[in-house]
Amino acid sequence: MATEVREGTLVLPDELVDTEVLGEEGLEDMINLIHLFAIGNAAYSGLVKEAHNQVVVISGESGAGKTESTKLIMQYLAAVNKGSNSIITEQILEANPLLESFGNAKTIRNDNSSRFGKYVELYFRRGAIVGAKTSEYLLEKSRIVSQAADERNYHVFYELLKGLTEEEMKKYGLKSASQYFYLNQGGSCDIASKNDEEDFRKLRGAMEILSFTTKEQESIYRILACVLHVGNIYFSRTQNAHQHEGVEVSSVAEMKWVAYLLELSEDSLKEAFTMKVTVRLSRPLHSQSNM
Ligand SMILES: Nc1ncnc2c1ncn2[C@@H]1O[C@H](COP(=O)(O)OP(=O)(O)O)[C@@H](O)[C@H]1O
Ligand SMILES: [Mg+2]
Q1: Does 5 score more than 60 pLDDT?
Q2: One Pfam family for this entry, by name (predicted)?
Q3: pLDDT digits (tens, 9 = 90+) for 51-68
Q4: 104 CB less than 6 Å from ligand 1?
Q5: What is the mean pLDDT of residues 70-81?
Q6: Average pLDDT over residues 123-140
Q7: Which of 57, 76, 78, 170 is close enough to 89 for a disulfide, judged by CB 3.0 to 4.6 Å?
Q8: Average pLDDT over residues 41-47
Q9: pLDDT at 12 over 60
């Protein structure tokens, strides 16, 4: 039997009123959030009863609650779906912390602002979730190298530096966040409402659930560490005998770390940082004849 929470607005299936799904205080929370579950409910019924594909469009200005609403609707669909394969639903839900670590950052408007667009498709067969696909687009890449005052780079960097073990920090040559130019431009590396160390544990957990191998996780940490090392490389101006200006790398230690972590030769890396190559295509050049 289904339970009526608010007369005439929504009939909740028993699975949702079950305290195993909601917890003791969950029903009260649900009543506060009823509109989101109602939307999830309408989409799920449309899908199952009418066999029509459904789409939920979540829009609003930054900080309006799109990201949180999306997660709640996904949690709703995961809780009511008739599937017996809990690994798939767990993997679908765990994709969120992963995407947020790499794609969300503190801005002046929202401590957890999504800096990318996202289109999530959930696939159902006979009322059961059988898979999902997330397409991301338009990641704000410029944030990796520069941040405005009171803003931060992507969460993942701060989480990494708070959450890695001492041994891992040594392995990647890392220091605390305030020592990196790519992380300290905004002024503060900490967010009062967020525990980066705890979120790194969640990120590791998400990678495990999503079947990232140890090797894959290590390469991710390596690449992240390299981004931070690259940001701390500084250059000085040089002038050769023909008065041609050039640059040279002044921070050798950071260069060595990047070369070591990416398994590149130091010389070729240095060349890539200090030389530019101009390729000219040889095309016929047309100009007016002289007398
Ligand atoms: N349903 C909700 N319950 C509790 N807090 C919420 C809810 N929706 C939004 N918030 C608060 O507002 C902040 C911004 O919401 P978010 O979903 O990140 O906004 P958007 O994605 O639209 O920019 C969240 O970090 C959270 O503090
Ligand atoms: Mg968002």
Answers
A1: no
A2: Myosin_head
A3: 999 999 998 899 989 999
A4: no
A5: 94
A6: 94
A7: 78
A8: 92
A9: no
pLDDT value at position 21? 64
Q: Ligand 1 pocket check: which of 32, 72, 110 to mutate, most ligand atoms within 8 Å of Cβ?
A: 110
What is the mean pLDDT of the segment spanning 100-123? 96
DSSP string, the chain: --EEEETTTEEE-HHHHSHHHH-TTHHHHHHHTHHHHHHHHHHHHHHHHH----------STTSSHHHHHHHHHHHHHHH---S-HHHHHHHHHHHHHHHHHHEE--SS-TTEE-SEEEEEEEEETTEEEEEEEEEE---GGGGT---TT--SBHHHHHHHHHS-HHHHHHTT---GGG-HHHHTTS-S--TT--HHHHHHHHHHHHHHTT--HHHHHHHHHHHHHHHHHHT--EEEEE-TTS-EEEEE--HHHHHHHHHHHT--HHHHHHHHH-------------PPP-
270 alpha carbon to ligand 1 midpoint, in Å?
Answer: 44
Residue 27 has pLDDT above 90, yes or no: no
**Sorting pLDDT into bands at 50, 70 and 90, what band is 216?**
very high
Q: Which carries the bigger pLDDT value, residue 47 or residue 278?
A: 47
72 CA: nearest ligand 1 atom: 1
Asked if residue 13 has its Cβ within 6 Å of ligand 1, the reply is: no
Separation of 11 CA from ligand 2 center, angstroms?
A: 29
Q: Which ligand is nearest to the CA of 110?
A: 1
